[in-house]
């Protein structure tokens, strides 16, 4: 079992930056693949970024590639999402999620891959 708590959201002007933090509890965090998703009003939850348990592989949605960076600190049980050059279309509630990696097959785009979710943090980008 793992609990996830996101923080770092807020209101920022277009072109600005934010860093989201996802703090995890649980002894096996270092074996979990982690993902970030977002959901805007009236839209489905969409994949943003993911990182494997080792941190060696990172994946990004095309819409954020080159602007967002995902990283993790297994010692601190924390995952980060650095968001630069923010755009109004990045406005959404951002969620982190954990995949226990039982199958060894990390289908990172699909929400169903992840067993644990945080409560979300609001990011609002003004134009």
Walk me through what this model shows.
Strands 2, 4, 5, 6, 9, 10 and 11 form a seven-stranded mixed beta sheet that branches. β4 (33-39) and β5 form a beta hairpin. It is built from no helices and eleven strands. The protein is 0% helix and 46% strand. It has strands spanning 4-7, 10-13, 18-24, 33-39, 46-51, 58-60, 68-73, 78-83, 92-99, 116-117, 121-126. It has 127 residues and is an all-beta fold. The N and C termini lie far apart (40 Å).
Average pLDDT, rounded to a whole number, is: 95
As a percent range, the share of strand residues is over 45%
Please give the largest β-sheet.
7 strands, mixed
Give the strand tally.
11
Structural class: mainly beta
Short description:
The chain has strands at 4-7, 10-13, 18-24, 33-39, 46-51, 58-60, 68-73, 78-83, 92-99, 116-117, 121-126.
Q: In terms of topology, how is this protein built?
A:
Layout: E1 4-7, E2 10-13, E3 18-24, E4 33-39, E5 46-51, E6 58-60, E7 68-73, E8 78-83, E9 92-99, E10 116-117, E11 121-126
Parallel strand pairs: 2-11
Antiparallel strand pairs: 1-3, 3-8, 4-5, 4-9, 5-6, 7-8, 9-10, 9-11
Keyphrases for this structure?
single chain; 127 residues; mainly beta; 4-stranded antiparallel β-sheet; 11 strands; globular
């Amino acid at each position: 079992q793992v609990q996830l708590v996101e923080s770092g959201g807020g209101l920022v002007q277009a072109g600005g930056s934010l860093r989201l933090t996802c703090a995890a509890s649980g002894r096996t965090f270092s074996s979990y693949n982690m993902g970030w998703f977002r959901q805007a009003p009236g839209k489905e939850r969409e994949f943003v970024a993911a990182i494997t348990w080792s941190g060696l592989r990172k994946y990004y949605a095309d819409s954020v590639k080159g602007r967002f960076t995902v990283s993790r600190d297994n010692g601190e049980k924390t995952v980060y999402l650095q968001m630069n050059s923010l755009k109004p279309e990045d406005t959404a509630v951002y969620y982190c999620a954990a995949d226990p990696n039982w199958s060894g097959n990390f289908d990172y785009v699909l929400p169903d891959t992840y067993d644990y979710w945080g409560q979300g943090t609001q990011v609002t980008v003004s134009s």
